[in-house]
Structure formats: structure tokens, C-alpha cells
Amino acid sequence: MSQKLKYPQWQEPLTAAILEFNAQQLRGKIQKAEEVITDRIQELSFDNGNEEERRALSDGLFILQSLKKDRMES
């Protein structure tokens, strides 16, 4: 990925899911992205800061839900 990501630990799996169009591989990539995003949300639950990342994580989960709806329920 040529663009430098601010939160690569979870943005890389999210990006991989967004860029995947093979239905079989998409399911696994969405699951992986959901896991790392959920893990990061749990890590941040003990930290009062990081509001920007919290918003980005929420956006990431919304994107994954949209991918499921648009690409997997067709």
C-alpha cells in the first residue's frame, strides 16, 4: 500500500477488505478486519484519549457493514 496509514494495525485489514471483490475471500477479509477493529476498540476502552482514532474505528465498522450488505447479500 503506497499511502502511509495512520493506524496500520487495523487500517491494513480494512483496506484489504475494501479492495477485495472475490466473494469467497471477501468474507474472510471482512471477518479479519472486524476482529482487529473490535480488539482495538477494546484496547482504547481503558484510555480517555484517542477520540480521532475512535471515530475512525467507528467509520471502519460502518464500512464493513456496508461491504457485507452491498457485496455479500447480492
Which key terms come to mind for this protein?
single chain; 74 residues; mainly alpha; 0% strand
Written description of the protein model:
This protein has 3 helices and no strands. Helix 1 (8-18) packs parallel to helix 3 and helix 2 (23-44) packs antiparallel against helix 3 (51-72). It is mainly alpha-helical and 74 residues long. The chain has one domain (9-72). It has helices at 8-18, 23-44, 51-72.
Give a quick precis of the structure.
With 74 residues, this protein is an all-alpha fold. The protein has three helices and no strands. It is elongated and about 40 Å long.
Topology:
Blueprint: H1 8-18, H2 23-44, H3 51-72
Helix pairs in contact: 1-2, 1-3, 2-3
Q: What integer value in Å does the Rg equal? A: 13 Å
The figure for the number of domains is 1
* Weakly predicted, low-confidence segments: none
H/E series? HHH
Strand content is under 5%
Biggest sheet: strands, sense, closure?
none
Distance between the termini: 28 Å
According to DSSP, the number of beta strands is 0
Assign the structural class, choosing from mainly alpha, mainly beta, alpha/beta, alpha+beta, or little secondary structure.
mainly alpha
> What spatial form do the alpha-carbon principal axes imply?
elongated
